[in-house]
C-alpha cells in the first residue's frame, strides 16, 4: 500500500484533487523456457511477475490527457488531446500509452473524456522484463474499466501489440503482452504465439524465488544476429520441404523425426539451429509436465539444458550470459539457470531456494565482476497475476 499512497499524493500534487481516483497495476514478465522458437512454430513458457507498473487515474471533463511518470521525472507532465493523437518524439515514453488509446479509437471504441494518469514502474528499464508491454497492457486495462468497454483481455493484449508494432514501430511478438495480460498468480503459461492457444501450469514456488540477473551489457549486434538465425531456420525449413518432409514449421517435428531428416538440411549451421528449435520445443512440453507433477527439480534441469542448447546450437549467449549462468550452476540452492530473451546480453532467469538467495547474489555477482569487469543487477520475484484494477482496501 505504501507505493499506492505515495502515488496518490503525487497525483494530487501534480494534477490537483479528484474525488474519483482509481488504481491499476500490470506486471512485468519473464520467459522461463522456450527461447527462439516462437517464430519456428514452437511454444513459449512465460509467467507474470509480482512487480510491474502502477497507474493512478482520474477522469477529466474535457478531451485532454495528462501523463506523468516517476521513472521519467525529467520529462515532466506531457499533454495531448484525444482528438489529435500522434507519435511525437519529445513525448518519449508517453507514446506507448498514447499508441494504445489511438488503436482503441481506430477500432471504434469510444473514449469519451480525457484522463490524468501518474505512472510508476518498478520493472528496471532495459532489463528485458517488458516495461513497454507492461505500460501498454496497463493502459488498455484502464480504458476498459474507465469507459466500461466490452473487450476481453486477449483483445487488449492484441491491441497492445498492435500499438507497439504500428504506432511505436517496433516489430515485437505477442508473448510479452500476453503474459502480462493473462498472467495468473502461482502459474506459468504454455503459449502458442501463432494460434494464441494457451494452458496454465501450476508454478507454486514454495521457499523458492525467481532471481533475474541483468548482465548490464549493451547489445551491439543483437538485431543482425537475430535476423541471421531466423533466416537460417527458414532456409532449413525450405530444404526439408523440398525433400518431401511435410511440415509447415520446424517445431512440428520431434527429435526422433529430426534425426531421420537432418541429412536434407544443406548447411551444418542450419542443422544446429534446427536441432535447438526442435529440442527446445520438446523441453517446453516436458517443463509443462514437470510442473503438473510439482517436480521443480526436473524443471530446473530442463532450464539448464535449454541454456546449453542456446549456447552450443543456437549460439546466442556470449561471455556475459554464460558467466552468469555457469556461476549460478555452481551455487548451492540453485534449482536451474538459463539465459532468457533474445541473447547477446540481457538477462538470465534463475530458480533459487529462498535461504540461499543472498549468498547467490553475492557470489554470482562477484564471479561475474571478476570475469567481465561489469556489475550485474539482480531482481527477486514470484509468479504474479495479470493486469488488473486494484480494489480499494
Automatic annotation (TrEMBL):
Pathway connected to this protein: Carbohydrate metabolism; galactose metabolism
Subcellular location: Cytoplasm
Domain GHMP kinase C-terminal positions: 287-369
GO biological process, one term: galactose metabolic process
GO cellular component: cytosol
Keywords of this entry: ATP-binding, Carbohydrate metabolism, Cytoplasm, Galactose metabolism, Kinase, Magnesium, Metal-binding, Nucleotide-binding, Transferase
NCBIfam families recorded: gal_kin, PRK05322.1
Protein name as annotated: Galactokinase
Organism expressing this protein natively: Cetobacterium ceti
Amino acid at each position: 500500500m505504501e507505493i499506492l499512497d505515495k502515488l496518490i499524493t503525487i497525483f494530487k500534487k501534480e494534477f490537483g484533487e479528484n474525488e474519483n481516483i482509481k488504481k491499476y497495476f500490470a506486471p512485468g514478465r519473464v520467459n522461463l523456457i522456450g527461447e527462439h522458437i516462437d517464430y519456428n512454430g514452437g511454444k513459449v513458457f512465460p509467467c507474470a511477475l509480482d512487480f510491474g507498473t502502477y497507474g493512478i487515474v482520474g477522469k477529466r471533463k474535457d478531451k485532454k490527457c495528462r501523463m506523468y511518470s516517476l521513472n521519467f521525472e525529467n520529462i515532466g507532465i506531457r499533454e495531448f488531446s484525444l482528438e489529435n493523437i500522434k507519435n511525437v518524439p519529445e513525448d518519449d515514453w508517453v507514446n506507448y500509452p498514447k499508441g494504445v488509446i489511438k488503436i482503441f479509437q481506430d477500432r471504434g471504441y469510444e473514449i469519451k473524456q480525457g484522463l490524468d494518469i501518474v505512472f510508476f514502474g518498478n520493472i528496471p528499464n532495459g532489463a528485458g522484463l517488458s516495461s513497454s508491454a507492461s505500460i501498454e497492457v496497463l493502459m488498455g486495462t484502464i480504458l476498459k474499466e474507465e469507459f466500461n468497454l466490452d473487450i476481453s483481455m486477449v483483445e487488449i493484449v492484441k491491441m497492445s501489440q498492435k500499438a507497439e508494432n504500428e504506432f511505436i514501430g517496433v516489430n515485437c511478438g505477442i508473448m510479452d503482452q500476453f503474459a502480462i495480460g493473462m498472467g495468473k498468480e502461482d502459474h506459468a503459461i504454455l503459449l502458442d504465439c501463432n494460434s494464441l492457444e494457451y494452458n496454465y501450469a501450476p508454478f507454486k514456488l514454495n521457499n523458492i524465488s525467481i532471481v533475474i540477473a541483468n548482465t548490464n551489457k549493451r547489445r551491439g549486434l543483437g538485431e543482425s544476429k537475430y535476423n541471421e538465425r531466423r533466416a537460417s531456420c527458414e532456409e532449413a525449413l525450405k530444404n526439408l520441404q523440398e525433400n518431401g518432409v511435410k511440415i509447415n514449421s520446424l517445431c512440428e517435428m520431434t527429435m526422433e523425426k529430426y534425426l531421420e531428416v537432418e541429412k536434407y538440411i544443406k548447411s551444418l549451421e542450419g542443422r544446429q539451429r534446427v536441432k535447438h528449435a526442435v529440442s527446445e520445443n520438446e523441453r517446453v512440453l516436458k517443463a509443462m509436465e514437470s510442473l503438473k507433477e510439482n517436480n521443480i527439480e526436473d524443471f530446473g534441469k530442463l532450464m539448464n539444458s535449454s541454456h546449453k542448447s542456446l549456447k552450443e546450437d543456437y549460439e546466442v549467449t556470449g561471455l556475459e550470459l554464460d558467466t552468469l549462468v555457469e556461476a549460478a550452476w555452481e551455487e548451492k540452492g540453485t534449482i536451474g539457470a538459463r539465459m532468457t530473451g533474445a541473447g547477446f546480453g540481457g538477462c538470465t532467469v534463475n530458480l533459487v531456494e529462498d535461504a540461499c538467495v543472498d549468498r547467490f547474489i553475492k557470489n554470482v555477482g562477484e564471479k561475474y565482476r571478476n570475469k567481465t569487469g561489469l556489475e550485474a543487477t539482480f531482481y527477486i520475484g514470484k509468479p504474479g497475476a495479470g493486469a488488473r484494477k486494484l480494489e480499494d482496501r
